[in-house]
Design brief:
Oligomer: single chain
Strand order of the largest sheet: 2-4-3
């Protein structure tokens, strides 16, 4: 007997399985996932998110990479354009923080939730 045949079983169902994603939402999600598909950008996002106070100066995170400053700036720009980071210039430095609603959107698509399997 398969899991689907057992009445009352609970299966994990993501929003991707419940219904197809629609137009504009797909474009936004794809842009965010694509930005995170690069190891440097994923690490940058992690460094910013885990930094004390929830924001990090570019001067605090650039030393974590063996990359030039222009390359780091490019990766940060991609994360900003994808809506995952926001920033503010303070004097000569730029401070970055994660956009919580963007992470919630990504999480909501991938989170599993129990759903009753029809008998």
């Amino acid at each position: 007997m398969s899991n689907q045949e057992r009445a009352g079983d609970v299966a994990c169902r993501t929003p991707l399985v419940r219904e197809p994603l629609t137009g504009e939402r797909v474009v936004d999600l794809a842009r965010m996932f694509k930005a995170l598909g690069d190891p440097v950008r994923l690490r940058l996002l992690s460094l910013v998110a885990s930094h004390a106070g929830g924001e990090a100066c570019v001067c605090d995170i650039s030393g974590s990479f063996d990359l030039s400053q222009p390359t780091i700036s490019h990766h940060l720009k991609v994360l900003r354009e994808a809506g995952l980071l926001d920033c503010e210039r303070r004097g000569t430095w730029v401070y970055y923080w994660v956009v919580p609603s963007a992470l919630q959107q990504l999480s909501a698509v991938l989170t599993t939730e129990p759903a009753e399997v029809p008998a």
